[in-house]
Amino acid sequence: MDATDLMVRVAKAIERHGLETVLIGNAAAAMQGAPVTTLDLDFLYRRTPANLKKLKQIAADMGATLYTPYYPASMMLRMMNDDETSQIDFLHEVSGIRSFEGLRTRASRMTLRDAPVRVAALADIIKMKKAANRPKDWAVMGVLEKTLEETTKANSQATPGTPPPAK
Question: What CATH code is carried by the domain that includes residue 95?
Fold first, then answer.
């Protein structure tokens, strides 16, 4: 299974169970045209008892284990499936973002194949990475900022009612 297949499978499970999430990190940046790669999928989710129950149901549906990793020490939940070597992280808070609701309001609803995915705005992804202040985030910062600049410019030059040019 490739990364796209995994993302579609996860997105469909999230939609089917009604889990409140927003895709963040490099996977979200890549969906917006940034030339970056990643080995995992990261989601911000609204932490409620109902959503925790939905996360457990999604893990069971995918034949995966949901657990809290020791490192990084956090309230993050990780879903792993040894057969697919998938790593899907669900965080209820991230550096640089005040609230799930604010992030979700600015996010775009995209479709990958036939699976709906709510994707964090590139400006928010950059803000999260700067606030996290990790070397791996700074390594992609120039690429993300350039992609945001080009996307913003293309969108401002687009004729109303027409989509921006493809990358």
Answer: 3.30.460.40
**What 3-state DSSP class applies to 44?**
strand
Q: How many CA atoms lie within 13 A of 16 on its CB side?
A: 14
Summarised one tens digit per residue, pLDDT across range 34-51 is 999 888 899 999 999 999
List the Cα angle 105/150/34 in 5-degree steps. Answer: 70
Write phi, then psi, for 161 (nearest 5 degrees). Answer: 90, -5
Q: Which residue has the higher pLDDT, 162 or 147?
A: 147
Residue 80 lies in a domain: yes
Whether this prediction's pTM lies above 0.85 is answered by yes
Q: Is residue 166 part of a domain?
A: no
Domain range for residue 38? 3-157
Tell me which residue has tokens 């590139």. 122
